[in-house]
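Can you make up a polypeptide sequence alongside its tokenized fold?
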Amino acid sequence: MEYSKTITVYGADWCSDCKRSKRVLDSRHIEYVWIDIDNNASALETVKSLNQGKRVLPTIVFPDGDVLVEPTDSELSSKL
């Protein structure tokens, strides 16, 4: 499987945990792709497939294929 070279953050504008994770990435000047699942049905399906059918946000996919779901700031920072 070939992975993207960029971090992908699946979330929604109303999601406070998503905003928090974006702040962590932005504060460290980490490039990422933001995908709002409310405006993208295939992205919602991707999130569900990564989370046993559940809509859990944020779901963050890393270039190495690792996935963090609703990470704390320290969990996200340690992965960076």
Observations:
- The mean pLDDT is 93.
- The chain has one domain: 7-79.
- The CA atoms of residues 12 and 36 lie 5 Å apart.
